[in-house]
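Objective 1b. Sequence-to-structure analysis of Putative ecto-NOX disulfide-thiol exchanger 2.
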Amino acid sequence: MMSLKTEVHQTGCDGCVRDTVDLENIKEEFNMLFDEEETDKIGQKLVSAEKYEQLKVENDTLICELEGYRNECHLAKDEAERKFEKFKAHYIAQQALHGGPNRPHQQRGTAAPPTPDEMKYMPQGQKTEAKLVAMLTAFLLAHPLGATIDYLASYVRSMIPGATHSSVNTVLIKYGDIFARQAKDRWAFVLFDIVKQEGH
């Protein structure tokens, strides 16, 4: 039969063992929990980094596409404006030559500008004059308030280096059906106004 001392000792040992096991279990759970938290943190960081790179790539792609669309819009706009200006100059020259839309030609004592087809058979000087008429027409249509002779001459010289202040002034005066001097020495495009007045 086990003595009381032995029994107490055995009971104490069993308690120590249980305490040790419990402590180990707690330690193991703590380590597992700690490791899981660290793993989750690392995983979250990895996911965030991947997501950031993905968003960055998508953003760069969108920026490139937007820039491409913007360039296409600018090119299309420039092309449309160029064609429109060419059409206006051609149309105005034709109307001036034939005395305006839907009315017989009337001699007004001023020369009418030639059409582009007629320019093919002109001497070089007349071709230059026709170009001046077309350029001044397009410019003044875009500036309905008119422009000074200095401004017009500067514009024309940027397009036709050989043009002079005098040549621009001569064309403006010669084609009185198209251009007229207004207040403050500004020249304006007046063909449409003349056509409207004669239509009443």
